[in-house]
Automatic annotation (TrEMBL):
Pfam families the record matches: DivIC
Source organism, top-level taxon: Bacteria
InterPro entries with a match to the protein in the record: FtsL/DivIC
Name of protein: Septum formation initiator family protein
Organism whose genome encodes this protein: Hyphomonas oceanitis SCH89
């Protein structure tokens, strides 16, 4: 009788740990979800790093002593709607964004 109870107890203990290994809070199911989330975060990080690189380039182009006049003109046209005299301006419903 004791050996059957021991076997039942051991079986229940193995089932308990097996359940938590697969379906628990830190089990294999959660691990696969974490891997998908990690991939999403890596894509987001790549986009942010691209934005940072672009912004660093813009900062370098606007640094006193090395100002890029073409970039300043593009910014003035985009942000301030700057135009030269005698230029023909075509108005559209969509606003273009200078990158």
């Amino acid at each position: 009788m004791v050996s059957r109870l021991e076997a039942l107890g051991l079986s229940l203990l193995v089932l308990y740990f097996a359940y938590h290994a697969f379906a628990g809070e830190k089990g294999l199911g959660r691990w696969s979800d974490a891997q998908l989330e990690l991939e999403d975060r890596k894509v987001e990080l790549a986009k942010i790093e691209t934005d940072i690189s672009r912004l660093r380039t813009d900062i370098r182009r606007l640094t006193p002593g090395s100002v890029d006049p073409d970039f300043v003109e593009a910014l003035a046209r985009d942000k301030l709607a700057f135009v030269y005299p005698n230029e023909i301006v075509l108005m559209t419903s969509e606003r273009s964004v200078a990158n």
